Structures are given as structure tokens and as C-alpha cells.
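Example record

One chain of 184 residues, shown exactly as stored in the release files.
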Amino acid sequence: MNTSKFMVWFRLLWMFLKVNILSPSGPASIGLLYKEAVGNEVMTEAQFVEAVGFSNVLPGSEALKLAMFVGFAAGGIPGVLTALLGAILPPTVMMLIVATVLQRFQHSNWIDGFVAGMSPAVAALIVVVAWELFRATSPKGIDRRAMLIAGLSAIAFWFELPSPLVLLGAGLLGVLLYSQRSYG
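Predicted C-alpha cells for this chain:
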């Protein structure tokens, strides 16, 4: 019994270490975390979509909130602590390394070019992850209701409405559009 709990905790630690090493940015890590959590049957697809939605509505770091949600679903409170350790350790070590390098080369022109080159790639990565998540949440194909919610959300983001409000509005619109009505 202790071995199985230990293995769950080890699996959570390894999953979040791997996700945070291979994809250190918050939004880009969602696709990899989806494959790790749902693909390895740590949680269902519905639980994962719920976790992503709530992690974006609540204040704070999305990566840490997702680690807590997945960790709790798989291993309770010890799972939360293990997942958080896996989520915090890689970015902390990476930031110490990056800060050291930037401090050394802060006045070099190549740093500006490097950042300018990375920006479009990061934007493309976010679009690809968003598309994959959109397709994953529409198992029967993309329907008009999903397109309506996505379009209205994009417009709201374009006008720089706060993301928690947009997500809350999308959730409420989803209740209106997707809830089965029963009379009687």
C-alpha cells in the first residue's frame, strides 16, 4: 500500500519535472501536461479541462494551480506537495541560470535579437496549444456554439478585458448554450 502511494507521488514529481523542463512557459505547458495527465490516466479529460478553466479564473500562477489540481486528483494533499515541488524546482533553477547569463551579457546586442526571434515562435506555440485544446474539448467536432464562444472570447480579449472575466462569461454562456432543458 505504501509502495503504491509512493509510486503515485513519484509519478507526479516526475510528470511535473518533465513538463516544466521541456516546456517552461505557462500556456505552452498545458498541451504537454494534457498528454501527461490524461494520457497516463492520472485524470480524465473532463477533469483536466475543468482544472485549466478554474486555474485561469482564480488569481495566481496557472502552472502552480494546475499542479495543485492534478496533484490532489492523483494523490491527495501529499500529491499536491509533490506536484508543486516538481512544478517549482525546474523554473527556479532555470531562472537562476538565466539571471546569471543575462547579468554577464546584459549589454550585448545579440540578446535583443534572440528575444526578438523568440517572440513570434512563442506566439505560434500558444496558438497551436489553443487549437489542440479547442479540438480536444469538442469530441463531436467543432460546433457552432463552440465557435460562437471562441469568437466572443477572442473579441473580449482583443478589447483587453481581464481573462478571469472572459472565462467566467464563457462558462456562463456555455451553461446557457449546452445545458439540457427539462420542463417538468
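Notes: Helices lie at 2-22, 26-39, 45-57, 62-105, 109-136, 144-158, 163-178.
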